[in-house]
Amino acid sequence: MKKSSSSTLILLLALVVITGWYVFYEKRFKEEHSKTEERAKLLVPFSKDDIQELWISHRKGDTFQLHKTGSTWTITSPVHDDADNGVPGSLLSSLTSTQIEREIEDNPKDLGLFGLAEPSLTITAKKDENQSESILIGNATQVGSGSYVKLARRNTVFKVNRSLHSTFEKSLFELRNKKVLPLTKDEIKDVEIHNPTGSFLVNKEPSGKWFLAREGTPVDPNKWGKVLSSLTELRATSVESETGDSLKTFGLHQPVIKLFFTTEKGQQKFVLFLSTLKDKTYAKREDKALVYQVDKAILTELLKPANELRDPHPIAFNRFNVVRIKITRSDKAPVEIKKDGIAWGFTDPANSERVDTSLVEKFLTRLQDVQIARHLGPKTQPPRTPSLSIELFELKDNQEVSAGRLDFGKLAKGEITGTSSFAPLAWTLKDADFKEINLERKDFLEKQGSHTQEIPDENKHSEQPS
Question: I want to staple 360 with a disulfide (CB 3.0 to 4.6 A). Which of 44, 93, 336, 344 is the partner?
């Protein structure tokens, strides 16, 4: 019996040892060994983040040098310009992940047979002053999608995937940052636009809302958003001049559009000139010599006059935040409606008057959607004694504050003049639109018995009134 127990214990110990060895070998040793083998196949020994400098030399003679500072890449030769950060990143990912597929020949007698006597491309990746790697890329292999390569420090020809060659076959323009303005929407504080219709300044307030600064009128967020997007996403389709000489050649001696940008912190200012000549559109920043060709579609947004950018709404508010409505008329008693929970009611209810909440919500929706017919400009005076005023209130820090006010004059020629806290310059509404919001106390009353009406059953046939 004791002998049987000892044998079982020995077998269990053996099983534990074998299981432990298997786990160690499969999960750690074998995995690490596999990683070591994969690393040994890599063409270059550097990681993507290690590389601080990159040289690309083409057989035809072009040589490009790129240098990394922090996380930003700069082209330092043959010109000095910002690199498209996405491109160097893609190049390095390809370079540091390329594996040697096969050793073709050690100490070849004739490198010309592989296109390596005069390489199609030579790539030099530099980690620091003491560590660099140069890769010569020759002909494409006759069989399969490969290329012949050779490391400068070794006299062995290898085969690698041809994608390395195609990835690095870049022109100077492809390496450059083609974004004309180095700004995002959030970084811009104001933009002054000079175009054939005149000049105007669009300014962003601390609230994040944009206004035509010289008249205090809010801009249409959708229209202005398109303008900002077209500017911050403007990309060059080509570089026409490296030196900026002969601006007359591109019509930039008399630009059709001038743009002046101030950043949020006010520490940087950018000036951009745009011109059009022979159906081509050119752009130049004041701080750079380069002349770019850009998509002419940019002119569609920038040639608009200021009045086309104005917000078409006489008032802006969130109807779900409104808690009180005050309507004042010159010929009748004022009407005040207050929200209690989800229901609305008069602040001075008479007898059994009940407010129809759906009618109030409909009124707020109409008020929110109504649009200005015409802007009248700064010379038109607002009405001294409004025939109708509508003021909305919302809660802020448990106190009612004005969310906006509209004042209307007298109806004339099918339009009525008005001003508001949102759009201070005088404007007009069409008579039909005005009637939609020109409501009296009776217009908010609940129809007698409407709150107790039975909802008809769709499955029952009901008689239609004659």
Answer: 344
